[in-house]
């Protein structure tokens, strides 16, 4: 099942380390089947606030996403990011092709106390 590394980049301090990080990151996730799905694109805020930028990297599974995150290659460049970029990063598994949100809705309704 596809998984994603999602970064909500909120503040970037201009620095040569940021350019180095960006130039090196692709080679760190390619061995794990990763690829950029969103990078540097403009986004539209429809509700709430979402300052900054969004980065999404897709992986074949959550295992590959975790392996990339913990890899020596990524750990070697991570300080280039963390010293100069503020934001949040998550790894999250996607849903399968047979996912049906109505099943979740029905379970939520069944868990409610009788009215």
From TrEMBL:
Pfam families: DUF1330. InterPro entries: Dimeric_a/b-barrel, DUF1330. Residues 2-95 form the DUF1330 domain. It comes from the Bacteria. PANTHER family: BLR0684 PROTEIN, PTHR41521. This is DUF1330 domain-containing protein.
């Amino acid at each position: 099942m596809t998984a994603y590394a999602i970064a909500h980049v909120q503040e970037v301090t201009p620095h040569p380390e940021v350019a180095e990080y960006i130039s090196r990151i692709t080679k760190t996730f390619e061995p794990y089947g990763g690829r950029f799905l969103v990078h540097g694109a403009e986004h539209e805020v429809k509700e709430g606030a979402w300052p900054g930028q969004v980065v999404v990297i897709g992986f074949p599974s959550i295992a590959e996403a975790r392996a990339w995150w913990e890899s020596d290659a990524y750990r070697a460049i991570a300080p280039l990011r963390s010293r100069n970029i503020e934001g949040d990063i998550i790894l999250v598994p996607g849903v399968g092709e047979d996912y049906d949100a109505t099943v979740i809705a029905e379970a939520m309704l069944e868990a409610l106390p009788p009215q």
